[in-house]
Design brief:
There is one protein chain. The chain is an all-alpha fold and about 160 residues long. Helices cover about 60% and strands about 0% of the residues. It has seven helices and no strands. Helix 1 runs antiparallel to helix 2. The longest helix has 24 residues. About 5% of the residues are buried.
Length: about 160
């Protein structure tokens, strides 16, 4: 018997078989039982080590594989669902929800901020809008807040007469 850190010659082939079984939809426990691992974590770790050492399918390829599986399940239960089988209908709806998650169909809508007039960037647009707001506020403010403080007709403390 060898230690856990010593690689066996057939380890890679065994790990590849684990990966194949997993792609077929077997549970980790089923794979462990079939290939002689002590428990499900042994099978899972073997696949993780294999994937760390080799280039795995791209995400898009994996999405296609999973989508094909969902299509097969959907087709198998579709007629029963349409015929009124509530369990089949629930399963079809769960399959559709899974497909939406897999393909990103349930992501929130993208929000974009369009550039202002003549393609001005965000900072320029924000500064322009703030200036417009301040100008509008200045037209509605009391005279003593918008007058030149050095002007002789402006009281130095207009609020000092409040309550007198």
């Amino acid at each position: 018997m060898t230690g856990n850190n010593v690689r066996q010659p057939d380890e890679r082939l065994k790990a590849q078989r684990c990966l194949e079984l997993r792609r077929e939809g077997h549970t980790w426990q089923e794979i462990a039982d079939q290939l002689g691992y002590a428990d499900r974590s042994g099978a899972r770790k073997a696949v993780e080590r294999l994937l760390d050492r080799t280039e795995f399918e791209s995400v898009d390829e994996y999405r296609v594989l999973e989508s094909d599986r969902l299509d097969a399940l959907h087709a198998a239960y579709w007629t029963a669902a349409l015929d009124g089988d509530l369990d089949a209908a629930k399963l079809v709806l769960r399959i559709s929800a899974q497909r939406c998650r897999l393909l990103g169909l349930d992501l929130p809508a993208r929000v974009s901020i369009e550039p202002g007039p003549a393609g001005e960037d965000f900072a320029v647009t924000a500064a322009r809008l703030m200036t417009e707001i301040m100008d509008a506020d200045a037209r509605t403010l009391p005279d003593f807040l918008t007058s030149d403080p050095s002007s002789p007709e402006v009281e130095s403390e207009p609020w000092s007469n409040i309550g007198k």
